User: Fold these one by one.
Assistant:
Number 1:
Amino acid sequence: MRKLALRVLSFMTFGILIAWSWIALAQNTPSGFGDVTSTSNVGVSGTGTAQGGKLIDVIKSFINWMLGILALIALVILLWGGFQMVTAAGDDGKYKKGFKILQQAAIGLVFIGVSWLIVSVIFWLLGVIGV
């Protein structure tokens, strides 16, 4: 049982790290963030030098924000599934239910990561063609 708890804990830690990196990647943080005297922030929304942006930037920020929230929700579900597995106390049905929750949350995190990648590529392409 101790080996199982250690394995689940390491899997949950790995899931937390993956989710945290996706949340961090979903944030559109420019270089020099917070330095309002820097000229590299000119035209960057929310840095103090330009309060506003193109509609496409607002849409991209909203989508990235929503994907971050979804990743956080999936992380909580991942933790709940791991908790169910660890506290199963030999009950095979409860363990399988927790493992199924864990699998579904992991699949959800993968979908969130792939959708972030797709959204980033689409908006990059839109930026290249000058929309």
Number 2:
Amino acid sequence: MARRKKIYEGKAKILYEGPEPGTIVQYFKDDATAFNAEKKAVIEGKGVLNNRLSEFFMTGLGQIGVPNHFIKRLNMREQLVRSVEIVPLEVIVRNYAAGTMSKRLGIEEGTQLPRPIVEYCYKDDSLGDPLVTEEHIAAFGWASQQDMDDILSLALRVNDFLSGVMMAVGIRLVDFKIEVGRVFDGDFHRLIVADEISPDSCRLWDIETGQKLDKDVFRRDLGDLKDAYTEVARRLGVMPKNTPPVTKPTLIN
């Protein structure tokens, strides 16, 4: 097999050149990080779970007409996706107060918000992904006003979809973040959902017990992260309960 060219390695994924122009192979690592990578661990099987869960969510979004970069899953740890130009923003949708919002505004964690609130953070790990306003985004040219309208629409459609899917299996979607990418057709571009959607990028609480089923389990030392992610996958029917995830990562170079 020919050696693949690595394009980028982040905290949770590695990107390789895809087999066709305009494609990328996205590899899900077992690494877990928190607090801007100040806390780190390797959770065996995490990459497998996130690969399968992101496939599930992206496929579901595609079926209801929400454009995204997912093409197909290649194996237990890799998926083929469209190459995009990432808008340098993390788009956060909050349905309940939690995390940094609770700290910033003094709102008790778990408080239902009057409506979904969309926030934007500038993607820069060295700065800690600071919160920014639409005024910053326009002034620095990170996205046009039309882009922002499209990003807001995408974010709220993803929220509607994820909230319904999660509620059906007894999980509350507290908040989540997505990234958005541009795909070009000549001089024109459109925006699509990119990166991943997984428990790494969502806050998920059991509706009955309030048990956390997301990366806060790792952030706050609340138990076994793999068990939490496996429970989400089991409820969604992504992985049968009696099918253990593959635990040994295999990188093909």
Number 3:
Amino acid sequence: MEIGERLKRFREARHLSGYALANAASMTATHVKAIEDGTTKSPTAGTLTRLAEALGITVDDLIGASPIPPGENHDAGRPEHTVEVPIRAIASGGPPIDAEELEGETYQLLRHLYRDGRYVIRIVGDSMYPHFWSGDLLLVEPASRVKDGQVAIVKVNRESTVKRVFKRKKGGWILKGDNPMFPPIEVDAEEVEVVGRVLKIVDGERP
């Protein structure tokens, strides 16, 4: 079995998209796809190491050097490599909107990214483009404070949005998107509640 085929089987067994694996391995989705479809036939040792670590396996597993015991499932007895976390809400990438609770929807987060209380949120809207695309799943850590310029989940008068947060010199906050087509939102301090810090994109579609 070729490396690309083994990589795809391990990825799909962990319910990861190519983009999610690429993000976890600090690679591009295009590079992962090239390995899986055989366009890149001999990935570097560094690439194989990053992919193996992201999947929670060894490089020998990935290249097929580890023997499979006769009569046993190769994955039997292995620790779980993902943790099921809730997709807690849909946050707006534009003006604040009511956050819609997604009851029962979960995401298989790679175990090394998991910490107690972390959850995934789906962004909709284009105000954070090009760094965040509508539909991206973002890993969020509960937090009541963030540094200037950090991306956060904030509630403005109890409605949610995803923005970069800056303190205003005259008091209050400036909430800015990365898309220059959307004007900043200026609000008083009592109108804003920071509820989470965005850590990274864990999944999303790219052309």
Number 4:
Amino acid sequence: MKRIKLLAFMLMLCSACLAQNQDDGKTWKFDLTSKEEGVRLNIDLYEETVEVPGMDIFGAMNGYIGGKVYGVWMVTSFVIKNEKTAVIRFSNDFGSETQECILTHTDDGNYTLELTGGVCVKKVVDKKLVKIKNKHLFEVKK
């Protein structure tokens, strides 16, 4: 009888651990805008379902950065480190530059995007190309 109770307890404990590590399928799929910079982030790290504006020839991809930046930056590779952090590599629409970013899902449900390894993404200001900030806050619409 003790063995059955112990076995039942172990199974319940294992199922609880597995349930905590499962992703709900929404953490890495979203379409957000940084109000401060006017940068749009459309991502689906589960499947290639995102249509990149002006890049229909490539078909659906895992996402892009657009908005008030020079060109469109498409997801070329990514690694989901854990349930809160993903490392994403973007390439510009010409394929001449790449930008690695760390995307973090914050405790309040929002996201931060930190551009690492030197900022390549630029925007036009007074007819000049200027690098954007290296850290952006993306708020989830409520």
